[in-house]
């Protein structure tokens, strides 16, 4: 197994060298609007599972072996809101890679980095899911893990994404892994382990430590076929999805998406409806049928004089506003549209087709390992890399051509230079009396009800007398000190005009 990890790093180095409303329709609309033809989509299997089961929670995992060069492909399915939870291991990142580099609208990002030379795990969680990271339950080194506390259909789940380096001995695995898992089982009745544990479950001898663990904790692996295909050696089952509640899991996923050097993408659906992401609606005025002369004519006939029947200036203003607004609404009506999240321009069809062809040639090589098939795959792999680099180069040139004065310059550059570039979704989920509240209007009402009544009974419920408190005494002493009486000083209009003339209209005044 140690050799396999080394081969992964070598293969990546060689590759870099060679390459020089809450309805189902609301949340899944992006999938259908941006639907790709199966003939050019490397994630067609994952999309098909999502289309058939739009309401269930889709959890997936991939040993990606360096995310920085493959985020282009990963973002493709995230922008379409396909997986609810996506774990990526061996991300090979450190703190020099800001969160904004890997942020995707509608998802929260959790990271547990090692360094740029190996390891690391990252997780995308859809912002509508009532989930939180549990760092207190994460496995200690040498394991790399992320633990999520998640509620699905009123059932509390612990979703554990974990990577075990091949260098970890069986004794350490049996000691530390069992210790951490014991702690989790005392707090959760439902839990799931997804990741690469580097134990081949197709070989009884090599997979014995993990098989023994499954017997102790009554775990079932729902992935039954090979997940790892190396250049040398037989295919193995090292990427696993274990759970003590397999009756709630269905439709296991296991396919080669072409992103990892050797590993398949695996996934599972969990029974239970997940909260849907309501599309944001934007109001705008439509100028489609606007006629300037007709509009000016109607404005001239507005009887503004009737507003002065009111004595109160506020009522006069309201009358003026209402009369003008009626005319404006007739000529420039207010309409609504859904705020669609657009993918970056470099994520277009041309690179996607090339990536899919690379995946097919890779499959051909592993079906028939010949030098001819390998050479076809290698050339297509290098072509994909050149194409991605060209697309990114054109994208940045078009958005940053005008320099810092361009309106697109800083939004494009900021994620690369600042940790504030991340745009985590502000969606708030509440657990009210064991019921998950995801509707943001209901969340606002709950917060409003709480804060307007937070001090309602503070006087009646407080029996302590703070008359002698040190803070109260200091306030009293300060107020009792003699101070000059407050008085307005007369100001001449000439002085006001003089100060106004000194204002620089082209500069923001503080």
TrEMBL record:
SUPFAM superfamilies: DNase I-like (SSF56219). Residues 1-18 have a biased composition (Acidic residues). Residues 1-39 are annotated as: Disordered. This is Endonuclease/exonuclease/phosphatase domain-containing protein. Residues 19-39 have a biased composition (Basic and acidic residues). InterPro entries: Endo/exonu/phosph_ase_sf. Gene3D superfamilies: Endonuclease/exonuclease/phosphatase.
């Amino acid at each position: 197994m140690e050799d396999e990890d080394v081969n992964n790093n070598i293969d990546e180095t060689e590759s870099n060298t060679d390459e020089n409303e809450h309805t189902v329709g609301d949340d899944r609309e992006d999938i259908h609007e941006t639907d790709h033809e199966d003939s050019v989509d490397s994630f067609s299997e994952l999309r098909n599972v999502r289309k058939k089961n739009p309401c269930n929670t889709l959890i997936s995992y991939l040993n990606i072996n360096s995310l920085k060069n493959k985020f282009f492909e990963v973002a493709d399915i995230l922008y379409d809101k396909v997986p609810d939870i996506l774990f990526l291991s061996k991300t090979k990142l450190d703190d020099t890679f800001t969160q904004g580099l890997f942020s995707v609208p509608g998802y929260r990002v959790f990271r547990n980095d090692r360094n740029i030379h190996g390891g690391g795990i990252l997780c995308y969680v859809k912002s509508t899911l009532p989930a939180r990271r549990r760092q207190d339950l994460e496995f200690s080194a040498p394991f790399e893990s992320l633990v999520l506390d998640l509620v699905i259909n009123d059932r509390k789940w612990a979703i554990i994404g974990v990577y075990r380096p091949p260098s970890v001995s069986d004794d350490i695995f049996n000691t530390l892994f069992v210790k951490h898992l014991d702690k989790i089982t005392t707090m959760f009745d439902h839990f799931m382990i997804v990741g690469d544990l580097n134990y081949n479950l197709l070989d009884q001898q090599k997979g014995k430590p993990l098989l023994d663990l499954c017997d102790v904790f009554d775990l079932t692996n729902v992935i039954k076929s090979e997940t790892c295909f190396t250049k040398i050696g037989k295919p193995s089952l090292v990427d696993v999805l274990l759970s003590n509640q397999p009756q709630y899991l269905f439709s296991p996923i296991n396919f080669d998406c072409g992103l990892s050097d050797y590993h398949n993408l695996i996934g599972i659906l969990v029974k239970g409806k997940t909260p849907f992401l309501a599309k944001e609606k934007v109001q705008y005025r439509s100028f489609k049928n606007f006629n300037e002369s007709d509009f000016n004519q109607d404005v001239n006939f507005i009887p503004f004089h009737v507003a002065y029947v009111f004595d109160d200036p506020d009522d006069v203003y309201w009358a003026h506003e209402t009369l003008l607004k009626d005319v404006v609404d007739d000529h420039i009506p207010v309409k609504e549209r859904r705020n669609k999240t657009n993918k970056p321009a470099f994520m277009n069809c041309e690179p996607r087709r090339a990536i899919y062809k690379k995946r097919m040639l890779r499959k051909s090589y592993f079906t028939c390992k010949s030098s001819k098939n390998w050479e076809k795959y290698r050339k297509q792999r290098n072509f994909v890399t050149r194409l991605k680099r060209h697309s990114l180069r054109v994208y940045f040139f078009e958005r940053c051509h005008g320099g810092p004065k361009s309106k697109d310059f800083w939004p494009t550059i900021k994620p690369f230079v600042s940790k504030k570039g991340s745009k985590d979704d502000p969606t708030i989920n509440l657990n009210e009396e064991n019921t998950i509240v995801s509707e943001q209007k209901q969340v606002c009402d709950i917060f409003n009800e709480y804060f307007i009544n937070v001090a309602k009974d503070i006087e009646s419920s407080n029996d302590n007398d703070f008359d002698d408190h040190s803070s109260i005494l200091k306030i009293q002493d300060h107020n009792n000190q003699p101070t000059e009486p407050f008085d307005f000083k007369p100001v001449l209009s000439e002085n006001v005009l003089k100060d106004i003339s000194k204002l620089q209209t082209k500069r923001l005044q503080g």
